[in-house]
């Protein structure tokens, strides 16, 4: 017999999981109509909340923890805003921590969130799952991974499939005539760093471009490594004519050093960034990006965490990515050339 979950109740009632959770927990921030529909769905489905989860809710704090990898990263700033708003709508306040891309800082924040007895934690994990990440599992604290995962840990997650977007970016640059594409990679200690590098390697092989290992610089998802990566790649005997930065913050560092060196983006060198930050479209030239929805990721992460708090085990979600072509990856001879892709 398939267990009925709060997600089933929400679907039958025609409300969000957050609303169903508020109704079942007695939160007054719900309309009479919503309460009536949820109660009717509970009766029809004979829904019985997980006993252990119900016991935990009796001492709940009405707070969740969110631990991001680097609060200075525009992607994680947007994620934090989305999570905070979605959680607040569900009756929870959010305690925010910043790991600063350091495992020891991650562990300190997770230990603090555990001691504050938050009802659940959303985390973009670093490392191999040891330390305080392991404590979340052994203590059975409701947890959802966001953006990143840890190999071997069976934790619900919401992540992005980088393959399509990176393949589109490489094909776009190849069609524009670039044969040497420099890649500023994220750290291989993170799942996103490994996955995006693997996707880039496959895309380069698939287009028959140079697989010179010197064209890859391994950064750390921080702006300084984006600048360092550009500097190192442009010092090569045969430097790249195009660059792909594996996240927004390293792209910011790349833009800064290119301006300092007097290299005209979109004319002297092409540049594409992973992550579509709102103000990237306002640059001159506007920055081509590999886009994935941070708003959708944040909303889904909160929805999943509410299900875990209720005792359910939701399926992990993988969101798509796509290339958005703007002026930074055009060339003087073939503007915005390449496959037919989204532009704005």
From TrEMBL:
One GO MF term attached to the UniProt entry: DNA-binding transcription factor activity
Coiled coil: none
PROSITE patterns: HTH_LACI_1 (PS00356), HTH_LACI_2 (PS50932)
Boundaries of every HTH lacI-type domain copy: 4-58
One Pfam family hit: LacI
Protein keywords: DNA-binding, Repressor, Transcription, Transcription regulation
SMART domains: HTH_LACI
Protein name as it appears in the record: LacI family transcriptional regulator
């Amino acid at each position: 017999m398939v267990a009925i979950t709060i997600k089933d109740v929400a679907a039958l009632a025609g409300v969000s999981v957050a609303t169903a959770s508020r109704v079942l927990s007695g939160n007054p921030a719900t309309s009479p109509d919503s309460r009536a529909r949820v109660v009717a769905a509970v009766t029809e489905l004979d829904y019985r909340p997980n006993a252990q989860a119900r016991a935990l809710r009796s001492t709940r704090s009405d707070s969740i923890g969110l631990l991001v990898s680097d609060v200075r990263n525009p992607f994680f700033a947007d994620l934090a805003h989305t999570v905070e708003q979605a959680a607040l709508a569900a009756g929870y306040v959010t305690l925010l921590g910043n790991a600063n891309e350091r495992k020891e800082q991650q562990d300190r924040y997770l230990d603090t969130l555990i001691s504050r007895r938050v009802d659940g934690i959303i985390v973009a994990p670093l490392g191999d799952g040891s330390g305080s990440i392991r404590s979340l599992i052994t203590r059975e604290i409701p947890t959802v991974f966001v953006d990143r995962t840890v190999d071997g840990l069976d934790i619900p997650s919401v992540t992005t499939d980088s393959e399509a977007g990176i393949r589109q970016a490489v094909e776009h640059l190849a069609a524009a005539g670039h044969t040497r594409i420099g890649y500023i990679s994220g750290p291989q200690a993170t799942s996103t760093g490994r996955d995006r590098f693997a996707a880039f390697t496959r895309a380069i092989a698939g287009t028959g471009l140079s697989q010179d290992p010197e064209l890859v610089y391994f950064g750390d998802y921080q702006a300084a490594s984006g600048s360092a990566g550009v500097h190192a790649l442009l010092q090569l005997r045969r430097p790249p004519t195009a660059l792909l930065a594996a996240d927004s913050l390293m792209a910011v560092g790349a833009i800064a050093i290119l301006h300092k060196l007097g290299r005209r983006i979109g004319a002297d060198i092409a540049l594409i960034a992973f992550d579509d930050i709102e103000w990237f479209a306002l640059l001159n030239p506007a920055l081509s990006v590999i886009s994935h929805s941070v708003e959708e990721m944040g909303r889904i992460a909160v929805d999943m965490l509410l299900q875990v708090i209720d005792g359910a085990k939701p399926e992990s979600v993988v969101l798509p990515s796509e290339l958005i072509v703007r002026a930074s990856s055009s060339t003087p001879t073939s503007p915005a050339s390449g496959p037919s892709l989204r532009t704005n």
